[in-house]
Every structure is written in C-alpha cells, then in structure tokens.
Amino acid sequence: MDFESYRGLIQQVLAEDIGSGDITTDALIPAGERGKAEISARQRLVTAGLPLARMVFNELDPALAVELAAGEGETVEPGTVLIRLKGKLRPILAGERTALNILQHLCGVATETARFVERVRPGKTRILDTRKTIPGLRRLQKYAVRMGGGENHRFGLYDAILIKDNHLAVVAGSGEGRISRAIRLAREAQPERPVEIEVESVEEMEEALAAGAEAVLLDNFPPAELEEAVRRGGGKARLEASGGIDLGTIAGVAATGVESVSLGRLTHSAPAADIALELVVE
Length: 282
Fold this sequence. Notes:
Layout: H1 7-18, H2 23-28, E1 34-41, E2 45-46, H3 50-60, E3 65-68, E4 75-76, E5 81-88, H4 89-120, E6 126-128, H5 138-147, E7 161-163, H6 165-172, H7 178-189, E8 195-199, H8 202-210, E9 215-219, H9 223-233, E10 238-242, H10 250-255, E11 260-262, H11 265-268, E12 275-280
Parallel strand pairs: 6-11, 7-8, 8-9, 9-10, 10-11
Antiparallel strand pairs: 1-5, 1-12, 2-4, 3-5
Helix pairs in contact: 1-3, 1-4, 3-4, 4-5, 6-7, 8-9
C-alpha cells in the first residue's frame, strides 16, 4: 500500500482539526515539554492504517519518534500497544484525535471483515467488499478489508462490468430475453471484460448462465432459493450472494456452497475500533 500518496489527505484532515492552532494544548503545555505516549487497543482487533497514524504525528513534528509496535493485518488482544511516541508533547496531543480517527475507522473495517471471514470457516466462501465506501477513502477502506482477510470486488465503474436492475430496466427492456440482451450488449461493448449480472430469481440466473455470464449476483435470495441456485448453477459461473446478510446469517449463506458473498456493511457500517492514546508517566 502506497501510504505516502495520502500525505495530502493527512495535511487536509490536520488542517480541518487544528486550524490556526491547538489553543488548549498551547495554553497548558510549554513548547519544549517532552514526554512519551502509547496508542493501545482496548478490544480484540485487526490492525490497519498504522503507517498513516505515524504520518500524522511526523507531519506535525518530523523529529517525533514514532515506533509502530504491531504489524498491519495483525490480530491483537486488548491492552496491546500499537504505537509508541516520544518527543515534544504539543504535536503528540495536537495529532491525537486525527490519528485515532483514522485508526479507529480502518481497524474497525479490518476487524468487522475478520468477523465475517471467521464465520465462513472452514468453508471456501470468499468475503467481498462493495463500492459502498466513504468518498475519497475507497482505496484505504478496501485495503482494510484485505487486512481483515476479505477480498476486493471491483474498485469502480471503470474496471468491471456489473449489470444491475436499473441497467436492465432502461437498456434491456422487459419480458423474456432481457437478461440475454443485456449480456450481449455488454459483451459487444467490452469484449475483453468478464460480465457479471444481478438477478432476482433462479430462472433469471439460468438465463444469465445460458448467455455466458462469468458471474451472477444473487440479490436478496432467501436461503432455500440460494441453495437451489447453487445446486443448479454451481461450477458454471461464479455465484455471489448479496443483500441483507449479517453476522447472524452469514454461516447459513456460506453453507449453501455459494462461492462469494459481497457485503456493503464492511465499509459503510463497520463499528469503530476501541483505540486510545495515553501519556506514559515515568
């Protein structure tokens, strides 16, 4: 991951928080006051984004010693020190919130992903993310998904074909054969791209398979219908389940044998990880 490419973002979010200066810290902490601090996990979590936190502090003070005490994608227990800081206290306190905001979100995404990955073991179902990401943070969020053991679906509209219900409604018309027509149009326009199409029934899936779709998105299929879809279509194309799946239902979905499950909640609804910065008193 090229974290350096996010230096502009780091500068932007620091400016948003600090503005003309941290007036509380400047009022209470002498400019030359030095000390140590630790950023620690307060829950079991999967790490993601620690180098970005280091960038936050070194953007404020290049001389600040910032030690990453855990690796990316590492599962850690409560109380584990993630980052150690040593140097002037003003930049440590000024950067605290920005660094924690980044870590709590990205570690939260990685941790939520890991929960889903754990629920589908020991099977082979893959956990995928979606495009339901915070604008401007997609690459970072998808990176965090990988740190949690998940896999990335398409990054944007430019790198993969996914025919959805609104495409079908406008382009392919209605009635018999609309699935086949949509796949044909996509194939003619982008012959080198694999085609994935969203369907709402086993019958639509079979039409998509007959038309040569490489992947079929089974949207909001009830468990029995999902199992039937896998029975009829498994091995003929990549079958992907999506819609309304949570930690309570993912194991049952995976038990149908579906190859992959895509989850918007990995990026749009992951709970923030509980992480804190504390000064080290010696």
